[in-house]
Amino acid sequence: MGMESKFIWLNGEMLPFEKATLHFLTAALHYGAAVFEGIRAYDTPKGPAVFRLTDHAERLLRRACSVSANCHGRPSRLWRQSSRQ
Hints:
Elements: E1 7-10, E2 13-16, H1 27-31, E3 41-42, E4 49-50, H2 53-66, H3 75-83
Antiparallel strand pairs: 1-2, 3-4
Helix pairs in contact: 2-3
């Protein structure tokens, strides 16, 4: 079973998968300087739903700050940007 994504979150915006590229000198590729938070969406009768999205977004931002990544903003801003796609 494979996973297929139509969009990728990159540099604060959702991009079509095929347009999401990184420079070959990106530190995260060479040194593992990245953060990750797994978030799932579930089909419901009212449409897709994410369980505890704000908690996921807050954890992601805390982790980004812990590795000195760009951690400005609030989870609500991340949600508004990603839900526009």
